[in-house]
Design brief:
Helices cover about 45% and strands about 10% of the residues. The chain is of the alpha/beta class and about 575 residues long. The strands form four sheets. It has a six-stranded parallel β-sheet. Helix 1 packs antiparallel against helix 2 and helix 20 runs parallel beside helix 21. The radius of gyration is 27 Å and the shape is globular. The N and C termini lie far apart (about 55 Å).
């Protein structure tokens, strides 16, 4: 097991101990150890092999034995026995927003509730509201949380789908009977949430490819299996479907199964208007539905299909029937952003607040990745839960950033850290720091982290007031949504976009997979108003730099080009752009 896997198990042990009512210091020790292991810069396997676990702060002898067992065997008897001592449904109940271990334990102890169904029944009967520490509001929120979980029970985050798809694709490409293959469906369109993964392959021997697919490592269950298609379940409960077609049919099937449904309807209508029929098997010279190969219009690629229908090629991300056809008719599909256009991220965290890397470690890592710059925007003081910085600590951090940059300059490298903050937007739109301090920072991200229950008008006013501050460069994660976990708070997004257009404030496309906020559906409006985008990782670990690539895919869905995205600029031009808003306010 690697560092992250071991840390996750230690964290769960701490939670299980809380559910059992064990000494809180014991459960806290596991949670602290988990955080420590996640922040390590070297593999646990190496530390264990060199017998250095005892040198890690907070890892006592008992924890050393458990960590060693996990690293060396991939299992932990203590963990398995602890899980078995409690109903499995208690952990599932913890996924409901607002239910922590203490409340779940109270529900279990006082009402004997062991799972989500029992919890729902108890809430509907009014039994939860009368418990100490709950009340009518808590009971209503629990019911809403259960409904939310069920609504998205079969939905998955995009990166989880991509991670599950990658080994399947590699295996299919290695199969000698596979001619072409690739993903289709919502994964290929880069939707932020997906239902299942669609794979498509071409072969002269489809049955053999299907059999191979259903036997691949990682397939936990075969739902259906035929000669040309199969459905399986992958780790994490993601359903994956494979269709195998002839290579002649492959471009048509790829276009059809990529979708979306709305896009496909328009494509078929365009074919009919030209006396043709388009389906998953081909484009045919026919007035009726057919698969007659004698009537087929040969199209070796998707590009040729679009050309036959009088269209420029439409990238998969745009196939949502949201303006792509009018643009393709006029040859006006823009050159969409490529993830390699991005030079760095302007919203990231370090060990100074709730991140995992030191400034020097972050600089070294991001330079190695080929970035030109990386902004350090740790939380401000009101984000107590994230170890937010007060003004004194922020000024100390400024000095350390300068020291790191001086060292980089001495080494002859052009990479630089940028100073900044993610400043909390407080009540009525006030900011957590005074303008004088904000003016000394290179990057200021203003975000909401509290007051989510305010009405739409109040939340909108807070965001607009923040945008009007001349020292705020951008608004962070505009709606506060957490995909599959929390709905966005009430806000008039178009009104905020209009305010950003009027003030020259940028809007973040937060590329964290739980956020992807601002939503891709609103970027066309923002772009039409002249509002520029900043694709940010909101990184808390080095690995989070990979979110830039995911964010670029969402930006492509929003029709964004290189010119629309601020952090495609080289460092010198970026600094000019950062200074522009403040200059305009003078």
């Amino acid at each position: 097991m690697d560092n992250e896997q071991v840390a996750a198990i230690l964290q769960e042990i701490g939670t299980l101990l809380e559910l059992k009512g064990e000494n809180p210091f014991k459960s806290r020790a596991y949670a602290n150890a988990a955080r420590t292991l996640e922040s390590l810069s070297e593999p646990l396997a190496q530390i264990v092999a060199e017998n250095r676990l005892g040198q890690i702060k907070g890892v006592g002898e008992a924890l050393q034995k458990k960590i060693t067992e996990l690293v060396q065997t991939g299992k932990l008897v203590y963990y398995d026995e602890l899980k078995a001592s409690l109903p499995a449904g208690l952990l599932e109940m913890l996924t409901i927003q607002g239910l922590g271990p203490k409340k779940v334990k109270a529900l279990y102890d006082k009402l004997g509730i062991e799972n989500m169904d029992q919890l729902e029944s108890a809430c509907q009967a009014g039994k939860v509201a009368v418990l100490e520490g709950f009340g009518d509001k808590s009971q209503a929120n629990i019911l809403a949380g259960i409904a939310f979980r069920r609504k998205y029970a079969t939905r998955h985050l995009l990166p989880d789908a991509l991670a599950a798809a990658q080994p399947i694709l590699e295996a299919l490409r290695d199969h000698p009977e596979v001619i072409r293959c690739g993903p289709a469906g919502s994964v290929r369109r880069h939707k932020e949430i997906i239902g299942d993964i669609d794979f498509l392959a071409s072969s002269k021997k489809p049955a053999g490819v299907i059999d191979y697919f259903t036997r691949l490592p990682g397939v936990t269950q075969v739902l259906a299996k035929g000669d040309t298609k199969a459905s399986v379940i992958l780790p994490g409960g993601i359903q994956a479907d494979l269709r195998v077609v002839s290579d002649l049919e492959f471009p048509f099937a790829l276009a059809y199964f990529t979708g979306s449904k709305e896009h496909n309807i328009v494509m078929r209508q365009r074919a009919i208007q030209r006396g043709l029929r388009l389906n998953e098997y081909g484009l045919f010279r026919s007035q009726e539905e057919t698969r007659d190969p004698a009537l087929l219009v040969p199209c070796p690629t998707e590009e040729e299909i679009f050309s036959q229908l009088g269209l420029a090629y439409i990238p998969p991300e745009l196939r949502e029937d949201q303006g792509e056809f009018a643009a393709a008719e006029q040859g006006a599909i823009p050159r969409l952003l490529e993830w390699t256009d991005l030079k760095g991220s302007l919203h990231n965290h370090s060990v100074w607040s709730d991140g995992r890397g030191t400034l020097a470690e972050i600089a070294a890592c991001m330079e190695d990745l080929g970035c030109a710059y990386w902004a350090i925007t740790d939380h401000s003081k009101s984000s107590i839960q994230a170890n937010g910085l007060d003004s004194q600590r922020l000024q100390q951090q400024l000095q350390e950033i300068q020291q790191v940059n001086n060292q980089l300059a001495d080494q002859g490298t052009d990479f630089r850290l940028l100073s900044g903050v993610e400043v909390d937007i407080l009540g009525e739109g006030r900011l957590d720091f005074e303008d004088e301090l904000l003016s000394r920072l290179e990057v200021v991200v203003a975000s909401l982290h509290q007051g989510f229950t305010q009405n739409e008008a109040e939340t909108t006013r807070r965001l607009i007031r923040a945008a009007e501050n001349p020292f705020v460069h951008m608004l962070g994660h505009l709606t506060g949504r957490l995909l599959l976990e929390r709905e966005p708070y009430a806000v008039n997004q178009r009104a905020v976009i209009d305010a950003c257009a009027a003030t020259g404030t940028w809007i973040e496309l937060n590329a964290h997979p739980y956020r992807f906020d601002l939503d891709w559906r609103l970027w066309s409006y923002a772009r039409s108003k002249g509002v520029r985008c900043v694709i940010n990782c909101d990184a808390h670990r080095h690995e989070d730099a990979g979110f830039l690539r995911l964010g670029a895919g969402i930006a492509r869905k929003g029709w964004l080009t290189r010119q629309d995205v601020v952090n495609t600029l080289p460092l010198a031009q970026l600094k000019q752009a950062l200074a522009a808003k403040r200059s305009a306010a003078k």
